[in-house]
Inverse folding.
């Protein structure tokens, strides 16, 4: 889906600007009209990458470095353009360097920081320009940037937790696969020749692994080509599915309903949504736009669809918690805590606490999954390797009969 920037007017004649991710400009217009807005313009802002295009999105580590440096520059009241130029001078191979160079040139031409970041939408998440715009409008850019720093730091921490949990299982899988491949390519053929010299009928497990060894040894290029073609077809299928809202929803449904990992993905999406919405509301970004941007940052199309439905009710005067509850996507505890805090006028703190709760649950579930995945992988690979070794030694018990001709 592409992302569009729109300008509209509400029933009171007040100008409404915002960004929406949809399948077409026509769809954006229809959604805005359903909210009772008169649309003035809709223009493409963020286009989806093509099939062969390389992503220029900055990593969370680079975004965290940028946020920390920008906060320090703002707090020190240094001129932005020269400070960004000096910052870029210390970077060499990082993707952040050309981004900083372009930002510096745009700022020197008199473009605002929000607009300069918006023009580099392929590098920054959508939440960045909106939060910075709120900081510039309220005159509290340093405070808003500090919230952004906290956000990027937590995303870096969450990413490191997820990556750390995968290191050991992946290592076990790779090493086990190498051992199994070595047995099939180097050991099994030798035993097969010995057995053929003696003649006789080999046990079924031995015949199976001998055939597997022959397949791996003599058809390895075809196997690699087949795997490559499968990956290419999978990539093409994902590309075309992601170009349509129905395909995105279907893929996200599969992801969220995957055994074991589905719950993890659901909690991860809720933590991102809660953290982003907390920052946006604390930065005084309009509620409807905050909900749209927070939903986009969650990475879950199903959550985005649920928030789009809730936005129509919020625009009609409903509380955020009630509108989210009516979608059926958000749990009872989430909506109850948010509703209680909304009544106290402290929704931002509740969302911050909810984000922390879900992040801790993601961390605990990640550790549990990784602690279970490693033994399961070890046992599975050990069983496969042991079955190869045992099947190779099974004919030895009948070699005496083969030699004597009985």
């Amino acid at each position: 889906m592409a992302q569009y920037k729109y300008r509209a007017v509400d029933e009171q004649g007040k100008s409404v600007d915002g960004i929406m991710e949809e399948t077409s400009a026509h769809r954006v217009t229809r959604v805005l009209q359903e909210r009772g807005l008169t649309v003035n313009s809709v223009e493409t802002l963020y286009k989806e990458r093509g099939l062969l295009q390389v992503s220029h999105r900055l990593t969370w580590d680079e975004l965290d470095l940028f946020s920390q440096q920008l906060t320090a520059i703002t707090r020190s009241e240094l001129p932005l353009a020269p400070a960004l130029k000096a910052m870029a001078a210390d970077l060499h191979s990082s993707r952040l360097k050309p981004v900083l160079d372009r930002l510096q040139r745009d700022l020197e031409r008199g473009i605002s920081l929000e607009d300069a970041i918006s023009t580099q939408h392929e590098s920054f998440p959508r939440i960045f320009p909106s939060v910075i715009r709120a900081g510039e409008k309220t005159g509290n850019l340093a405070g808003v940037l500090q919230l952004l720093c906290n956000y990027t730091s937590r995303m870096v921490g969450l990413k490191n937790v997820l990556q750390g949990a995968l290191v050991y299982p992946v290592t076990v899988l790779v090493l086990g696969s190498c051992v199994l491949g070595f047995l099939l390519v180097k050991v099994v053929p030798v035993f097969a020749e010995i057995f053929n010299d003696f003649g006789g009928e080999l046990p079924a497990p031995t015949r199976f692994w001998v055939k597997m060894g022959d397949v791996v040894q003599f058809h390895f290029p075809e196997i690699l080509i087949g795997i490559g073609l499968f990956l290419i077809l999978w990539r093409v299928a994902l590309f075309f599915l992601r170009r349509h809202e129905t395909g995105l929803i279907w893929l996200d449904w599969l992801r969220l309903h995957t055994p074991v990992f589905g719950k993890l993905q659901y909690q991860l999406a809720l933590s991102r949504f809660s953290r982003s919405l907390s920052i946006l509301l604390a930065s005084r970004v309009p509620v409807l736009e905050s909900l749209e941007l927070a939903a986009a940052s969650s990475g879950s199309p199903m959550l985005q669809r649920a928030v789009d439905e809730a936005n129509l009710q919020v625009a009609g005067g409903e509380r955020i918690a009630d509108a989210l509850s009516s979608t059926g996507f958000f749990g009872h505890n989430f909506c109850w805590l948010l509703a209680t805090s909304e009544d106290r006028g402290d929704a931002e703190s509740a969302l911050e606490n909810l984000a922390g709760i879900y992040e801790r649950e993601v961390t605990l579930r990640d550790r549990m999954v990784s602690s279970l995945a490693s033994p399961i992988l070890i046992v599975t690979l050990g069983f496969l390797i042991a079955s190869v070794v045992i099947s190779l030694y099974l004919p030895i018990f009948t070699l005496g009969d083969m030699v004597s001709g009985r």
